[in-house]
Amino acid sequence: xxxxxxxxxxxxxxxxxxxxxxxxxxxxxxxxxxxxxxxxxxxxxxxxxxxxxxxxxxxxxxxxxxxxxxxxxxxxxxxxxxxxxxxxxxxxxxxxxxxxxxxxxxxxxxxxxxxxxxxxxxxxxxxxxxxxxxxxxxxxxxxxxxxxxxxxxxxxxxxxxxx
Length: 163
Prior knowledge:
Blueprint: H1 2-37, H2 45-66, H3 75-78, H4 82-114, H5 127-157
Helix pairs in contact: 1-2, 1-5, 2-5, 4-5
């Protein structure tokens, strides 16, 4: 059951990222065309591209984390016995999980606080800039619960799995 939730989460992040990147390419292309060929820059494209860039970055954070592709220095940990490596990895996963839960709370608080404020060009609520924080935190919670379950299995088996 939980593995199905993880798979759905992966698919959402994948397709969301693909769509956002495609829209960004079109918008930036429009901006270049209008600015340099028609000498009439569009006022809204830069702001929309900025919002989409924030969404793109935060839409892939959960996926990167779930693959353990985030930045880490594992030199000293890799020198430790396997079970101790798994314990350290689990503690780090747990800390990131707690951080993600706190971040969802803070992102929700920020989104509510920013709702009355509007962006300059598009006049969208600034909440659209803060929603990705909570969304990526939700995906990270799903993936880190999955990673913790894999860590427990690895600890029982005494081996380090792929993730």
